[in-house]
Amino acid sequence: MAKNEAITARKKKEKRDPKGIIAPLVVLAIIYIGLEIGLRAFHVAAYVMPTPTHIIQGTIKSFAIILPDFLFTLKIICIGFCVAIPAGILLAALFSQFDIVVKAMQPVVIWLVITPMITLIPLMTLWLGTDPNLRVIIVIIQATPIICMNTLNGFIHVEQEKLELAKSIGATKLQTFVHITFMNALPQVFTGIKLGCIFSTIGAVSADFVSRGQGLGDRIIKFLKYSNFEQSYGCIILIAIIGISLYTVAEKIEKRIVLWKK
Amino acid sequence: MGNQVFSVKSIAKSFGSEKDGNYMEVIHDVSMDIAEKEFIVILGNSGCGKSTFLKILGGIEPATAGSMVLNGRDIGTAIPPEELRRFGFVFQSNNLLPWRTAEGNLKLMLQIMKLKGEQWNKRIDEMLDIVGLLDYKSVYPHELSGGMKQRVGIARALVHDPDILILDQPLGALDAITRKMLSYEILNIWKKTQKTIIMVTNNVDEAILLASRIFVFSNKPAVITHEIKVDIPVEERNHQIGQNTRYNQLREEINEIVRAAM
Q: Which of residues 113-152 of B touch A (CB under 8 A)?
């Protein structure tokens, strides 16, 4: 058992290693101070780029206006993303059951990944009306294909030997899928999910830009109209924070589950 | 000789079809009778179809012609799923599932074969103990050395208490020293567990050390060219076997056969 303790101790040490947190913070501080000094020294106009301090001040001042839009965008991204994950994995699982379906669907999935889904918004407005909550659909159809594509890739690339192991012990099709194929694909599933975070964020904000009325994307344009540059930059940063937070959560879960990839 | 547990009658295997012009006969006609507690070693050049032969015996692939008799019952060209429990398969390159710990890899067998209960869980520990890895129970395969991984592979093949253990070049991927050590360990496992073992190798020394009978396969399409009874008593098979006159005699003889087949 001594060996096990050694391993858990090593894992804890890896987790506690402060370099991983301090290094990015230092970079952030350098960017912040560099911009603050640079922008002031060269008298850069606020409509090009306000100083970081002004951005923060402006954003805090107008936070009451931004908050409903922030919560709306957060809601759209989270709901869409949470639907896209099971949808993408489920579709990939269905496709992977038959070689012919994989061959048929792979190009379609790639085609869906590449198509920017905001192009559908004018049409969707025509079909479903102008309810801003319908932007969830945009997020779903934007994020599902990328999750599906990566997962499918994992599902169809299983080492022959692993499948032979399943055969040699008489595993059923379902057992083979659950114990071998799915577990084998988990790293790729997580790659898909992490890309899904990015695609969801892009989908939600671009939907705001096109159909307007609500959301952080819409708020950016409104602020710009009235020359509130600090606040527009603030909104951009808030969008980035939503994306980064989702990504970080996905990555943390991945590290918890995918223990075997180093 | 003890009871016959398993016999193979005129097994043949071919791939492709004559119509498409990619027809290839891998095994032409192989018959053998295997008695209880026997250690059968199959010797042959690489690519002679001996692994394919083991895959047929292990229920991974069906034969194209011939039949097999298991405990007096004719089972045709493929091992039926309900009989797979009688076999344990050790793969050439350990083939452990990287997402499961050593214990988890053994547990998979019990999960898939639906063997539940305390006695089976205890058996996991017993088997890991037999291969000397009880302390590494909760360690992932990527943290184990090549020899240790293969030992877990052997424990895995034994955990569901099969009658027949099939080893497909189990030492092929190891360095010379580990290979030698592990071959003695396989000998001990055979003595301890009293299983019937069928093993494929391309190493003559290993074959004589372990086998009760050696079958030499010809090049593709495989047939049995020689059957050699290794009449060295089990007690004399140890690290001093190199000084055994009978051992050296057999070694000379078999090396001659193998050279002629090249």
A: 113, 135-143
Query: And the tokens for B182?
Result: 């592990």
Range of the domain at B228: 4-92+164-174+181-261
In angstroms, the separation between the Cα of residue B232 and the nearest Cα of chain A is: 33
0.90 cut: is pTM over it? no
Question: CA B115 from chain center: how many Å?
Answer: 23
Residue A170 to residue B84, Cβ atoms within 8 A: yes
Alpha carbon of A138 to those of B27, B79, B114: distances in Å? Answer: 57, 51, 44
Q: Does A62 touch chain B (CB under 8 A)?
A: no
Give the CATH number for residue B247: 3.40.50.300
Among B38, B114, B118, which Cα is nearest to B81's?
Answer: B114
Res A14: pLDDT: 54
| For residue A140, pLDDT beyond 90 | yes
Question: What's the full length of chain A, in residues?
Answer: 262
Per-residue model confidence as pLDDT tens digits over A66-116: 999 999 999 999 999 999 999 999 999 999 988 899 999 999 999 998 888
In a domain, B123, yes or no: no
| Residue B128 falls inside a structural domain | no
